[in-house]
Amino acid sequence: MDEQKIPLWRDDRFLKLVGQIVVLAVVIVILSIIAHNISVNFRRLGLNFGFGFLNNPASFGIGDHIIPYSPTDPFGRALLVGVTNTLRVIILGIVLATLVGIVAGIARLSDNWLVRQISTLYVELFRNTPLLLQLFLIYQAGFLRLPPPEQPLQLPFGTFLSNRGMDILWPAASARTLIALAVIIACLIAGLVLRQRQLKIMELQGGNAGQGYQKILIALTVVGVLALLFGLQWEMPSFEAGRVNGGLYVSSEYSALLFGLVLYTGAFIAEVVRAGIQSVSKGQWEASQALGLRSNLAMRLVVFPQALRVMIPPLTSEYANLAKNSSLAAGIAYADFFQVSFTINNQTGRVLEVVLLIMIFYLTINIIISLGMNWFNQRVQLKER
Amino acid sequence: MRKWLSLLLATLLTATIAVACASSNDTTAGGGGGSGTSTLDTVLSRGSLICGVNGQLPGFSFVDSKGEYSGLDADYCRAIAAALFDDPSKVEYRNLSAQERFTALAAGEIDVLIRNTTWTINRDTALGLEFEPTTFYDGQGMLVTKASGVKDVKGLSGKSICVQSGTTTEQNLTDRFRKLNIPFTPVVFDDEDALYAAFTQGRCQAATSDRSQLTARRKSLPSPDNYVVLDEVISKEPLGPAVRNNDSKWADAVKWIIYGTFQAEESDITQANLSQSESSTDPEVKRLLGKEGTLGTDMGLPNDFVARVIKHVGNYGEIYDRNIGKPFQLERGLNKLWTEGGLIYSPPFR
Question: Between A and B, how many residue pairs show a Cβ–Cβ distance under 8 A?
């Protein structure tokens, strides 16, 4: 009864609603102003918005490509080459940076004075200097200082190094390689599934339960390793007549970018790892020592799994940063998505379309990284009942 | 309660600011258009010219250790400033990469782009630029090491070639190799300094660009005698200033300032003999130097704009010799006056 007497301007629910409507209106107004401005400017310059230009022939070459590409292909294809080039930096970069980061992070807490100091030096050096500078140094003072392609440096396993890039041992593209690859993947999946089951049975029944699984697992490992060593048709690069044939060629630009990103991001991840480990209370260490676990076991079984929970959210940001930093590739002549896009922009004058594509691309990559890491995060969180 | 009121106020304020911004944006959007104010008026009221240049290219626009710009392109920036303000130092230079230049011009960050830019139909039409008279006729060439023994483009089959991104040379290179049907690997740099650094370190067996640029760059390499510019010319590269489309007042001003330097050379007016020329009785010279008629004021420039340009910067031949002829011993070739068999030609000042 009293409710009806509250005037409208003092009704909390009403005001909340008004507030939301006003905010919505402002957002709409701003967006329409932007849209209006863009359309006015487009008309002024006599341009039409559209992605039809992506079907025109690119007529520029791209040095680094893992999918077939020639200058007669359309701009869209050139963009796809850029996408694959960026993805192969990001994916390998994330894996390697994580490994470097974990090793360096654990090393920072090592009991060994020298290991600790080296790790600290690495982290501080790479974390506190600009990435672009590091990339220039790694590329110009590192990879370009290697001998010319006519006299490459020869390393074991048929590896050749020159300022053109690296030639490394790689399985040849053949049916045999494909079959072996399928076998290896099948062994890995089967092994993981069986291991899970074995652990479950061991947990439930204790004692020597799951012995049978042990034998199958060993057999799977042997098959997998054999397939890896002899099944894959490994191709050794060879040096003949002034050039290297066979194997896999990795350009200096790609290598320099990968190295730079891994070392830079690795330094940040090392700090995340160190913080994660230090966040686990000292009591956990002491308890595991009291149980008689050696320090590497204590780290692996007790401390690290707990630290992981703290580490994942900041790790997500580091991965996202790595993905975005890969766009610095243009500085060292690597044809990533960003560089290819800007070349297209320059040739066609389609600034808005190209910038939109760039935004969508990096946004998508980072959303995928976030979703993946969130899923992983949910899996390792404490299951509270 | 109070929270909601303040939120309301805040949103209202944002909305007003947004609307205010929008309306001011609208006027600037119209500014570049034909109906609104011309860039010429903007430059005059600002009191200085914002000139987009390369900054890394000896002979065209190059910043020395004192921060001073020199080169043919830089001199044309000065010529425009001299014509408008009688003071060649009223120029703000903006160093732009090949990638950035057109966006910077379209967005109004610079008034004029004088950055060894090749005039092509695509840039003139689809990119919304307006090209001014060509100030340097160039052609694309190849820089290789003497040791490599490469004599022509065919000798570069299967090699890596350093090239700058966002340039016509990048496309010409691809076209030429496609025509010859030989493979090559482009190594594409954004930055010219990085490009030549990678080339001298042997990452590429050749660097390609306009021949004037290669000649100038070769001079500044650690040991110039180890390098050679191939004789083969693989494209036409008419380089000149560019302005925004749909602003013919400004485009005309820049155009006739450039033609003024051409005509002055043709009429033998130099920095040295300017004062004698000003008292000349030749009606053509008198019109050119603004002593007779209203050629300058008709288009919104001071009537003596050519005289100012000659006084401060010199005629085309002087600009060429100072920046390219003397330092790099580059033949004038196509850049001679039409009277001497070149392509430098000004329509009549009448």
Answer: 140
Strand partners, B188: B163
Query: Is the CB of residue A15 less than 8 Å away from at least one CB of chain B?
Result: yes
User: What number of other Cβ atoms are within 10 A of residue A106's Cβ?
Assistant: 20
Comparing C-alpha atoms, which of B122, B223, B108 is closest to residue B168? B122
- Residues A272, A275, A279, A285, CA torsion sign: positive
User: Exposed, middle or buried by CB within 10 Å (0-12, 13-18, 19+), for B190?
Assistant: buried
The structure tokens listed for B125 are 């039409």
Q: Where are the domains of chain A?
A: 3-45, 75-134+253-380, 170-235
pLDDT of residue B21: 47
Q: Which residues of A238-248 are buried (b: 16+ CB within 10 A; e: fewer)?
A: ebeeeebebbe
| Token pair in block for residue A356 | 């939109």
Positive or negative CA dihedral for A132, A135, A141, A147? negative
Q: Is the ipTM of this complex over 0.85?
A: no
In angstroms, the CA B243 to CA B128 distance is 9
Closest CA in chain A for residue B106: A45
C-alpha triplet B177, B161, B135: angle, nearest 5°: 80
Strand partners, A213: none
Mean pLDDT of A302-306: 89
First to last CA, chain B: 75
**Domains of chain B and CATH, by start:** 39-136+238-340 (3.40.190.10), 139-237 (3.40.190.10)
| Test mutation, B203, B204, B247, chain A, max A CBs within 10 A | B203
Q: What is the DSSP string of B167-231?
A: SHHHHHHHHHHHHHT---EEEEES-HHHHHHHHHTTS-SEEEEEHHHHHHHHHHSSSGGGEEE-S
CA pair distance A83, A27, nearest whole angstrom:
33
Are A74 and A60 within 8 A, CB to CB? no
Q: Are B32 and A44 within 8 A, CB to CB?
A: yes
From the list A52, A356, A242, A355, the residue with the least C-alpha distance to B103 is: A355
- The C-alpha angle A265, A271, A276, rounded to 5 degrees, equals 125
Look at residue A212 and tell me whether its pLDDT is greater than 60: yes
Tokens of B256: 């006739």
| Residues B31, B37, B43, B45, CA torsion sign | negative
Residues of A in contact with B191 (CB under 8 A): 331
DSSP tag of B87? -
Average pLDDT of the segment spanning A306-333: 92
> Is B188 within 8 Å of A40 when comparing Cβ atoms?
no
Is B4 within 8 Å of A15 when comparing Cβ atoms? yes
- The answer to whether residues B296 and B284 touch, using CB atoms and an 8 Å cutoff, is no
Identify the band that residue B26 occupies on the pLDDT scale cut at 50, 70 and 90: very low
pLDDT value, residue B8: 58
| CA distance, residue B99 to nearest chain A CA (Å) | 6
Residue B198 touches chain A, beta carbons under 8 Å: yes
B188 contacts A339? CB cut-off 8 A: yes
DSSP B20-62: HHHHHHHHHHHHTSSSS--HHHHHHHHTSEEEEE-SEETTTEE
- CA A325, CA A267: separation in Å to the nearest integer? 14
Do the Cβ atoms of B26 and A343 come within 8 Å? no
Partners of A245 in beta bridges: A238
**Partners of residue B98 in chain A, C-beta under 8 Å:** 346
In the predicted structure, residue B238 carries a pLDDT above the cut 90: yes
CATH class assigned to A75-134+253-380: mainly alpha
Contact: A330, B32; criterion CB under 8 Å: no
> Please, what is the average pLDDT of chain B?
88
Rounded to whole angstroms, how far apart are CA atoms B210 and A136?
Answer: 26
Q: Is the pLDDT of residue B23 over 60?
A: no
